[in-house]
Amino acid sequence: MQITVTGAAGYIGSHACLKLLDDGHEVHGLDNFSRSFERTVQALQRAGGGRFHFTQVELNDQRATTAALKLHPPEIVLHFAAFAVVPESVQFPLIYWHNNVGATVSLLNAMDAVDARKLIFSSTCATYGEPAPAHIPIGEDCPQRPTHAYGESKLACEHIMKAWVQSNAHADRDRGVVFLRYFNVAGGDHLARIGEDHDPETHLVPICLRAATGRHPELVVHGNDYPTPDGTCIRDYVHVEDLVTAHIEAIKVIPHRQTLAMNVGTGVGASVLEVLRACSVAAGREVPFRMGARRDGDPPKLVSNPEKIFRLTSWRPARSSLEAITQSAWRWFAQQK
Fold this sequence. Notes:
- By secondary structure, the chain is an alpha/beta fold.
- Helix content is 38%, strand content 18%.
- The protein is globular.
């Protein structure tokens, strides 16, 4: 299958490319390197055996995006490209509307130009905002009330894609989109070919590993007075390779002239301190940390109800234990200079 991946040099997009290549697909990666690295593309080219093609392109440039898609017309598009730093989205919301929403509109227009009709969208549990306790674990029927521009931009993309799918202007086109609403993605390739590589780093597992090796100041745990067993926030962590497998399974259930939303999580939560301890074990050294004040907008507990994706697909998380997540993250991290 010929598959186009946007955000192909990013954390999740690159792992998706790797899995697709390992499965024998032809993959065309798109990225502008605004928050990713050429070294990741080089790793994918080494793994691809000539089946990985890459085009550097700005998705907001519709003409350039159309030209890129024409190079390798896709049967499926996996759309990962986005900015995803919550505090930044609060400070600079227009950047998120421009980059996440504007680029999505441009991509859909480019897909129309090459008659590409099927898309898997990288959405997020952030579209649910801060659910009431009665909605936890979080199902797809939980009200979507995002509390920051990142979540708002992703929800706007969902609305735009729904309109695109249902457009009467192209009723003859059998369009379909799956929204995968991720929870907390972590870990790395099991062969350590690529890993989680952000600059600056904002995710808990790599920050813990950097702190353990002296490459980051001590970790600040934001709040230890939440109504959870150890007082720290609880999140649902899913291994990036499990997440990518969910995309493969989602391709099989893309609906006809409809959209389909599915959560991707394990249904099991882990606290900040539990993640910290797992990182210490994986790295073989203590993660230095101190307690800090709560951050505004941090819900005590966010855990998915994955029943829908379990029911509609054969997907099950296979590598999403904290041990597997942190050890895979460490294997790649330990190789970096």
